[in-house]
Amino acid sequence: MPQEYDSRASLHLDVNQGLDRVTELVQTRLIESGWRDQVKLHCRKTILESANSKHVPTVDELITQITPKARGMVPDAVKRELLHELELILMNVDRTGYAKNI
Amino acid sequence: MSAKGCLHVQNLKRHPQNLDTFKWLHTVFVVAGSPKSHEIKVSNAWCRTCKNRGPFLHACLGCVYFGCHKHIREHTKSQKHNFSLELSYGQLHCTACGDYVYDADIDAITMENKMNAAEFRKRLFECTSWDATEEERDLLSHKTKKICITPECTIGLRGLINLGATCFMNCILQALMHTPLLRDYFLTERHNCNNVQGACFVCEISKLYQEFYNGDTFPLALPCLLHLTWKHATHLAGYRQQDAHEFFIATLNILHNHCLDTMHKNNELLDRENGKCPCIIDKIYTGSLQSDVVCQKCNVVSTKIDPLWDFSLDLGPVTLGGKQPTSLYAVLEQFTRAELLSYMCSSCGTSQESTKQLTMKTLPIVINFHLKRFQHSEEIKKKISTVISFPEMLDMTPFMSSSSTENPYPQDNRYSLFAVINHVGTSIMSGHYTAYVRHHRDIWYKCNDEIITRAKFEEVLASEGYLLFYHKHVLDYE
């Protein structure tokens, strides 16, 4: 087990698949709000722009270029909902047997 | 379509044990379907350099190393291990090429793993390439008409002609046509019928969906559907005005029966659902009500669970001196309140004062609230026109049976309004039905037989309300 990892919260999130659920939720929200399409459009633009320099950007390069912009485009409502969901789950840390599988 | 990866992948594929390693890693760490592999994933998937769980965790194919985005690149470079597997989507990274690579054989392995997963993971299917079949390619090249969906777009709205006091049918059909899940089911043509043409109600509804979404705007007349209703629900036959709620329940009944008719041919479906009805109607509309009767003398609780399709809610005060409810919340509170009754207790064998309480055991995806505005019991059929306010977003959590201990996660029981049916007039035998439906998010239309007009949302909330349709806000997986 990694050192930082015994923080109860993140263990709880992982063992009970809470993180999976939240990730899925956020993903759905981002698709619904059109965020994903916007990011796709940005990637497409970046690739097209770089066509002049005859170098096709790799995924890693795209990630470094797009990530700051993409983060900024996440709608506030989605952030709020994520915060709320995490709060709800973490309030249950004490109630559930988070360590029983390990 | 054949995707051929780089030379390095071709070399990798020469040794079958490499592919086995890849397959195993993919099954356990990417798909992670079984509890066992989930356990392995939780205890192993963290970056061996910075001890974090991400971002973009990769597994090295050359040795036992996991690393986050930054560290896996450093690792593969310094150790000269050429391949790493991205763990959240399952893409293969080739260090020599400096990018992720695609290969048909690798794709086949990952696809097989995804399909065999114990649990469906949407995320894994989102970046799968779509290989169109011959038939689909043919369709794509021949059907080139494009329809663009904008908020102003009226596709999906059709007026329905009144065939003589059939407004009760029209408004229910409008509500059905705008039920998101039902629409998805029918527009994706999930119903395979082998019945005689024109005899199956489900096929008629399916046809109606096609009519609604083909872009035409002239109003429709539905004599066939009416005829089928008369045939299968004889109590609704005739040219008189009928109760919209009764028609709704009858429609669900017919749809349910016809769905089952076509399903019995492949019995395995029924078995797999172990006793639960697999038809689309039951999947969407069936919830269950738990009734607990507590004997005041011996405190024995007898619990009964009944499935149901709709909630019929009394509007009048139940006890003398009780307050008349004015909001949907209050009506629901009254519905789930414990009430006294005398009851023969099976445990102590005496007739005792008992309390009976109704709670919601499971909620359907679409909840239909029927506000009992018509009194049937008395000889004078009177309509109760009390104003009952109803919210756009309804949280059903307070009315659920208290079995939350089973599930450690707070469930999301929020529902959003998508259709309201109103009755104008003074009694059940006369008057007129209209429907408000949500067309796009926050865009509402009023459907008055063949006339469809844009409606303000305040107008919807201020309307009287006879049947209220709520759709689950966040859908869970089964």
Automatic annotation (TrEMBL), chain A:
Answer whether the UniProt record assigns the keyword Transcription to this protein. Answer: yes
Q: Which organism is it from?
A: Acanthoscelides obtectus (Bean weevil)
Q: Which UniProt keywords are given for this protein, alphabetically ordered? A: Activator, Chromatin regulator, mRNA transport, Nucleus, Protein transport, Transcription, Transcription regulation, Translocation, Transport
HAMAP family tied to this protein: ENY2_Sus1
What is its subcellular localisation? Nucleus, Nucleoplasm
- Pull one GO CC term from this UniProt entry: nucleoplasm
Q: Give the family, as the similarity comment puts it.
A: Belongs to the ENY2 family.
Q: Which GO terms describe its biological process?
A: chromatin organization; mRNA export from nucleus; protein transport; transcription elongation by RNA polymerase II
GO function terms (MF aspect): transcription coactivator activity
In terms of InterPro entries, this protein maps to: TF_ENY2 (IPR018783), TF_EnY2_sf (IPR038212)
What does it do? Answer: Involved in mRNA export coupled transcription activation by association with both the TREX-2 and the SAGA complexes. The transcription regulatory histone acetylation (HAT) complex SAGA is a multiprotein complex that activates transcription by remodeling chromatin and mediating histone acetylation and deubiquitination. Within the SAGA complex, participates to a subcomplex that specifically deubiquitinates histones. The SAGA complex is recruited to specific gene promoters by activators, where it is required for transcription.
How would you summarize the oligomeric state and partners of this protein?
Component of the nuclear pore complex (NPC)-associated TREX-2 complex (transcription and export complex 2). Component of the SAGA transcription coactivator-HAT complex. Within the SAGA complex, participates to a subcomplex of SAGA called the DUB module (deubiquitination module).
Protein's UniProt name: Enhancer of yellow 2 transcription factor
Keyword Repressor assigned to the entry: answer is no
Gene designation: e(y)2
UniProtKB/TrEMBL annotation, chain B:
Q: Which SUPFAM superfamilies match?
A: Cysteine proteinases, RING/U-box
Query: Which InterPro entries would you find in this protein's record?
Result: Papain-like_cys_pep_sf, Peptidase_C19_UCH, Ub_carboxyl-term_hydrolase, USP, USP_CS, Znf_RING/FYVE/PHD, Znf_UBP
- Domain named UBP-type is located at 4-120
Sorted UniProt keywords:
Hydrolase, Metal-binding, Nucleus, Protease, Thiol protease, Transcription, Transcription regulation, Ubl conjugation pathway, Zinc, Zinc-finger
Query: Which reactions appear under catalytic activity for this entry?
Result: Thiol-dependent hydrolysis of ester, thioester, amide, peptide and isopeptide bonds formed by the C-terminal Gly of ubiquitin (a 76-residue protein attached to proteins as an intracellular targeting signal)
The lineage's top-level taxon is Eukaryota
Concerning Pfam families, the annotation shows:
UCH, zf-UBP
Record bears the keyword Coiled coil? no
**GO cellular component annotations of the record:** nucleus
The main location class comes to: nucleus
What does the record list as GO biological process?
protein deubiquitination; proteolysis
Localization: Nucleus
**Domain spans labelled USP:** 158-473
The record ties this protein, via PROSITE patterns, to: USP_1, USP_2, USP_3, ZF_UBP
The record's EC number reads 3.4.19.12
Q: Name one GO molecular function term.
A: zinc ion binding
Q: Which family does it belong to?
A: Belongs to the peptidase C19 family. UBP8 subfamily.
User: What is the protein name given in its UniProt record?
Assistant: Ubiquitin carboxyl-terminal hydrolase
| Source taxonomy | Eukaryota, Metazoa, Ecdysozoa, Arthropoda, Hexapoda
